[in-house]
């Protein structure tokens, strides 16, 4: 018949659990530190990329779309704050905020004709007339509307 562990056995088992717990906490702390370093590296790389390509991001709708998709794939929302990193570096947040105001203005202007519901392409045409010389794409209008959905009221 097997004996139950004695006091010495219980103390030894408790010490082993404490040692395992300490090792687990250290591993978790190391993982958190590594994740923070990776995030800082990612932010720095995106910041550098954004600085180098600022003019193209602001002027080329396809490149702007690709940049936003790259950021989102990396877990960074370039539109999350109008006072955040992207607005500071590029004015991207402000660009979409301004565009969303113009979308709303167009919808309100045509409310008597169509209840304020515009076809996306019709809205884009109106925006292009309001912003001559600026290259806008359907994706820009979609992102502007997404900004409105993220910041209701």
Give an overview of the whole structure.
With 153 residues, this protein is mainly alpha-helical. The model has no long low-confidence stretch (mean pLDDT 79). The protein has two domains: 7-52; 54-153, Arc Repressor Mutant, subunit A. It has eight helices and no strands. The protein is elongated and about 90 Å long.
Set out the fold topology.
Blueprint: H1 7-52, H2 54-59, H3 61-73, H4 85-89, H5 92-109, H6 111-114, H7 120-130, H8 138-150
Helix pairs in contact: 5-7, 5-8
Q: Compute the CA-based radius of gyration.
A: 27 Å
- Please tell me the total number of domains: 2
Please report the distance between the alpha carbons of the first and last residues: 73 Å
Low-confidence stretches: none
Number of helices: 8
The rough form would be described as elongated
**Mean pLDDT score:** 79
Structural class: mainly alpha
Q: Give the CATH H-level superfamily of the largest domain.
A: Winged helix-like DNA-binding domain superfamily/Winged helix DNA-binding domain
* Main sheet summary: none
Could you give the count of β-strands? 0
In N-to-C order, the SSE pattern is HHHHHHHH
What is the fold named in CATH at topology level of the largest domain? Arc Repressor Mutant, subunit A
CATH architecture of the largest domain: Orthogonal Bundle
- How much of the sequence is in beta strands? under 5%
Pfam families: EAP30
GO biological process, one term: protein transport to vacuole involved in ubiquitin-dependent protein catabolic process via the multivesicular body sorting pathway
Organism: Cladocopium goreaui
Protein name: Vacuolar protein sorting-associated protein 22 homolog 1 (AtVPS22-1) (ESCRT-II complex subunit VPS22 homolog 1)
């Amino acid at each position: 018949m097997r004996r139950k562990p004695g006091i010495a056995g219980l103390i030894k088992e408790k010490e082993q659990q404490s040692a395992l717990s300490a090792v687990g906490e250290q591993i978790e702390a190391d993982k958190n530190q590594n994740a923070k370093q990776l995030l800082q590296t990612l932010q720095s790389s995106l910041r550098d990329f954004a600085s180098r390509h600022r003019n193209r991001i602001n002027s080329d709708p396809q490149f702007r779309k690709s940049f936003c998709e790259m950021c989102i794939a990396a877990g960074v929302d370039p539109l999350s704050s109008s006072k955040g990193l992207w607005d500071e570096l590029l004015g991207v947040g402000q660009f979409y905020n301004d565009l969303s105001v113009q979308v709303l203005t167009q919808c309100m202007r045509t409310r008597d004709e169509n209840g304020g519901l515009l076809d996306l392409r019709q809205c884009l045409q109106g925006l292009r007339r309001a912003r001559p010389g600026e290259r806008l794409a359907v994706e820009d209008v979609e992102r502007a509307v997404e900004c409105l959905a993220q910041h209701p009221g």
